[in-house]
């Protein structure tokens, strides 16, 4: 009887759980169908053309547009209703980041439209429809995420699950399409450069999808075709960020949240000067290295080897600094006694899973390079720098993941908890008035001195203020009643040590943030030694290694951008 009585409460969540399972399976099948279509186009499968792939993606985007419009219209009609919000989802800096990537994506779409107009005689109409649809999709999706990324949907839950998961996998397919297009372009350039390094035994067959007709305006065609591939990295990051934000929205559907005040964590430049200076030095030097690398690689064998050596030495130095900074931060955490926040938080859980999951891409490439160095019979001089570089990539990501995951799980310190107060006694006409600013107020400067009064915090004395003349006098009677204990000042000392630790952690987070942005730039813009050193192609074979690189590199690139976003959040929380 007891078991039967308990069934309704337990089984009440079954329909929603089934809806979650059904919607996830729908999304996975949607993604797999698009993935196979993308693969078929990439390998020139018989009967599959680019127009088929673009038609599929256009259809998915149009369905998502209809769902977003329906959701926005329904939200407008229910504007007066109070809705639950996930305060951890859709942070303002994340919305600003996705907006920046979206703006560059719109520029990419305009380049594609211009490219289609110049080659309209021999291109499918879908290649002109796709960038227009994608531009509309981008604008509406960014607006949707700005307004509703924090929503916790409690109505039409089954329908909304399918709509949100459709949006998630639509963005993942658009990300996959961007990654594949950019990778094919990089591979063509890589095949042409390999011959300069002396690897003439590798067959050079360009995988060309260029239109089979002449351009109407040669100069514009060159600008559009070259500019498109420089903008793809931003388009790729835009879609992966959008899919993660939509996934958090999907996980929040039907979720019960505890209503508590969320502590705001604004970003402040104060106190992180050292970290910012060193980080900017790394960023500037990395940009210079990338420019020199892209100019020198492929020009001649000597120049290519010098470019690779220069890249490896710079990367080894940066990774060593990052490892040191991460170890220092972890040691500081070991010295502190802070509780971890283990409450349910889909956004935080997804952040941790993405950090470890996408780091596997870099680890795969690094272990491949280590194995190639060990097994290769001949070792050009520059390939030996690849060994410490690969080892440091593995160690640095391991340390950084520990630091970020622990940081986002640590509870924030509350300024009013367990803070003792000092009493400042003001004497007025023989009576005393007690003012009690906390240590937090004294530290922030919000004391009586802001109002023209300067309280005296000396041992065994107080400052009084007479109402008629404003003169101050010491009184032995109040000296005995208001005596600062030793524990007050020991607390102040402990608070000072804590602030110093926090300042160090903020500088480390700022430094790692800029370093991750720096390390995102080289692979995103074509500086990929995994392609260019040639040693791995000899050991594993050209085609197998290229497949490994093309699969792992997108995750490695995304890891750096996601780490930078996570470290920005860490800096705000610290």
TrEMBL record:
<feature type="transmembrane region" description="Helical">
    <location>
        <begin position="538"/>
        <end position="559"/>
    </location>
</feature>
<feature type="transmembrane region" description="Helical">
    <location>
        <begin position="93"/>
        <end position="117"/>
    </location>
</feature>
<keyword id="KW-0406">Ion transport</keyword>
<dbReference type="Pfam" id="PF03189">
    <property type="entry name" value="Otopetrin"/>
</dbReference>
<dbReference type="InterPro" id="IPR004878">
    <property type="entry name" value="Otopetrin"/>
</dbReference>
<feature type="transmembrane region" description="Helical">
    <location>
        <begin position="504"/>
        <end position="526"/>
    </location>
</feature>
<feature type="transmembrane region" description="Helical">
    <location>
        <begin position="311"/>
        <end position="333"/>
    </location>
</feature>
<keyword id="KW-0812">Transmembrane</keyword>
<feature type="transmembrane region" description="Helical">
    <location>
        <begin position="26"/>
        <end position="47"/>
    </location>
</feature>
<protein>
    <submittedName>
        <fullName>OTOP1 protein</fullName>
    </submittedName>
</protein>
<feature type="transmembrane region" description="Helical">
    <location>
        <begin position="53"/>
        <end position="72"/>
    </location>
</feature>
<keyword id="KW-0375">Hydrogen ion transport</keyword>
<dbReference type="GO" id="GO:0042472">
    <property type="term" value="P:inner ear morphogenesis"/>
</dbReference>
<keyword id="KW-0813">Transport</keyword>
<feature type="transmembrane region" description="Helical">
    <location>
        <begin position="271"/>
        <end position="295"/>
    </location>
</feature>
<keyword id="KW-0407">Ion channel</keyword>
<feature type="transmembrane region" description="Helical">
    <location>
        <begin position="229"/>
        <end position="250"/>
    </location>
</feature>
<keyword id="KW-1003">Cell membrane</keyword>
<comment type="similarity">
    <text>Belongs to the otopetrin family.</text>
</comment>
<feature type="transmembrane region" description="Helical">
    <location>
        <begin position="354"/>
        <end position="379"/>
    </location>
</feature>
<dbReference type="GO" id="GO:0005886">
    <property type="term" value="C:plasma membrane"/>
</dbReference>
<keyword id="KW-0472">Membrane</keyword>
<keyword id="KW-1133">Transmembrane helix</keyword>
<feature type="transmembrane region" description="Helical">
    <location>
        <begin position="129"/>
        <end position="146"/>
    </location>
</feature>
<dbReference type="GO" id="GO:0015252">
    <property type="term" value="F:proton channel activity"/>
</dbReference>
């Amino acid at each position: 009887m007891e078991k039967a009585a308990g069934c309704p409460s337990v089984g009440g969540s079954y329909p929603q759980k089934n809806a979650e399972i059904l919607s996830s399976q729908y999304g996975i099948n949607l993604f797999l169908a698009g993935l196979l279509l993308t693969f078929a186009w990439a390998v020139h499968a018989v009967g599959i053309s680019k127009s088929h792939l673009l038609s599929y993606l256009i259809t998915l985007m149009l369905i998502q547009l209809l769902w977003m419009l329906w959701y926005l219209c329904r939200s407008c009609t229910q504007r007066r209703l109070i809705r639950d919000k996930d305060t951890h989802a859709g942070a303002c800096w994340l919305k600003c980041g996705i907006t920046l990537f979206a703006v560059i994506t719109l520029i990419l779409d305009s380049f594609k439209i211009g490219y289609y107009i110049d080659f309209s005689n021999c291109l499918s109409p879908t290649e002109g429809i796709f960038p227009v649809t994608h531009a509309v999709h981008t604008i509406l999706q960014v607006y949707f995420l700005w307004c509703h990324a924090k929503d916790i949907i409690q109505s039409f839950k089954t329908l909304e699950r399918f709509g949100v998961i459709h949006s998630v996998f639509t963005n993942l397919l658009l990300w996959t399409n961007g990654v594949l297009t950019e990778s094919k372009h990089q591979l063509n350039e890589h095949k042409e450069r390999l011959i300069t390094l002396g690897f003439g035994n590798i067959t050079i067959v360009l995988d060309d999808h260029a239109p089979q007709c002449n351009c109407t305006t040669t100069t514009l065609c060159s600008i559009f075709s070259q500019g498109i591939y420089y903008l793809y990295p931003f388009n790729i990051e835009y879609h992966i960020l959008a899919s993660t934000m939509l996934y958090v929205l999907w996980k929040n559907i039907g979720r019960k949240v505890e209503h508590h005040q969320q502590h705001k964590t604004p970003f402040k430049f104060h106190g992180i000067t050292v970290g910012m200076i060193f980080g900017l030095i790394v960023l500037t030097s990395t940009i210079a290295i990338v420019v020199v690398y892209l100019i020198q690689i492929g020009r001649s064998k000597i120049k290519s080897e010098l470019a690779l050596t220069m890249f490896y030495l710079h990367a080894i130095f940066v990774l060593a600094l990052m490892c040191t900074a991460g170890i220092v931060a972890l040691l500081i955490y070991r010295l502190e006694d802070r509780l971890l926040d283990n409450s349910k938080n889909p956004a935080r859980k997804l952040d941790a899973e993405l950090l470890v999951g996408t780091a596997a891409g870099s680890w795969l490439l690094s272990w491949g390079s280590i194995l190639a160095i060990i097994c290769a019979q001949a070792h050009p001089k520059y390939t030996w720098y690849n060994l410490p570089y690969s080892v440091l990539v593995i160690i640095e990501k391991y340390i950084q993941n520990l630091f970020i995951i622990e940081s986002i799980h640590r509870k924030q310190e509350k300024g009013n908890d367990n803070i003792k107060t000092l009493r400042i006694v003001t004497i007025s006409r023989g009576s005393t008035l007690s003012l009690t600013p906390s240590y937090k107020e004294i530290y922030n400067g919000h004391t009586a001195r802001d109002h023209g009064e300067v309280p005296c915090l000396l041992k065994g004395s107080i400052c009084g203020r007479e109402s008629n003349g404003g003169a101050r006098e010491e009184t032995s009677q109040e000296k005995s009643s208001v005596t600062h204990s030793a524990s007050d000042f020991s607390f102040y000392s402990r608070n000072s040590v804590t602030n110093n630790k926090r300042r160090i952690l903020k500088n480390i987070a700022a430094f790692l943030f800029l370093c991750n942005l720096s390390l995102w730039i080289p692979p995103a813009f074509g500086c990929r030694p995994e392609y260019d050193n040639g040693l791995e192609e000899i050991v594993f074979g050209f085609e197998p290694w290229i497949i490994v690189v093309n699969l792992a590199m997108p995750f490695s690139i995304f890891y750096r951008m996601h780490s930078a976003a996570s470290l920005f959040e860490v800096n705000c929380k610290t």
